[in-house]
Amino acid sequence: MKRRPYDLIIFDWDGTLMDSAAKIVRCFQNAARDSGLPAPADHAVRDIIGLGLNEALDVLLPMADARVRGDVLDCYRRHFLHLDTTESALFPGVAEGLGELGEAGYRLAIATGKSRRGLDRVLRETGTSRFFCATRCADETCSKPHPQMLHDILECAGVRPERAVMVGDTTYDLQMAVAAAMDGVAVSYGAHERERLLQHGPRACLDSFTEVCRWMDLASD
After folding, report:
1. pTM greater than the 0.90 cutoff
2. Structural fold of domain 21-83
3. pLDDT, tens only, 112-158
4. Architecture of 8-20+89-218 per CATH?
5. Catalytic residue among 12, 19, 47, 183
6. Is 139 assigned a catalytic role?
7. Is 47 labeled as catalytic in the residue annotation?
8. What is the DSSP string of the chain?
């Protein structure tokens, strides 16, 4: 019988499991406009995907005062949860792949820059909550790339860092994994470009979720 290389796979959500980058960009841009600010460029918003909302605003609006930041956050949440009706779908192969990974004996978890309210909503809408033994959100602990999310999940799951891997589409995911003394696997189909991801030493950089599942199988000995 093959021995799995890891006991626990921790996934990012936006850009790794769900194709939501375009919606995040639109909602941030509309939130800025509603608050009387210039809309940030597409690439600027894509660059902060994966961070918590407050940390994202530190990058996008470094000179804004607390009132403006509060307005933008309120507008962003309103657009994302209610006004922007564009559906964000799981990437191809995700629903099936999560099931296959679970059947292969892997435990699965999520570490995301989303809020708890936002994550619970998409888990409910996609029917995927049953796959995950633990989840951690940016409004519950430190934002990526701080490793606290991973520390919390490892403690909850009772898994050592060397027996877990972080899978994500941003440099923040890979930096977080390094800080937690864990392996990282990058996916190239999300927010950050392959060249940036490779600078952070992932075990692999994969082009589809199907490839992620195949890599986990091939990595077994």
Report:
1. yes
2. DNA polymerase; domain 1 (1.10.150)
3. 999 999 899 999 999 999 999 999 999 999 999 999 999 999 999 99
4. 3-Layer(aba) Sandwich (3.40)
5. 12
6. no
7. no
8. -PPPS-SEEEE-SBTTTB--HHHHHHHHHHHHHHTTSPPPPHHHHHHHBTB-HHHHHHHH-TT--HHHHHHHHHHHHHIIIII-----PBPTTHHHHHHHHHHTT-EEEEEESS-HHHHHHHHHHHT-GGGEEEEEETTTSPPTTSTHHHHHHHHHHT--GGGEEEEESSHHHHHHHHHTT-EEEEETTSSS-HHHHHTT--S-EESSHHHHHHHHHHT--
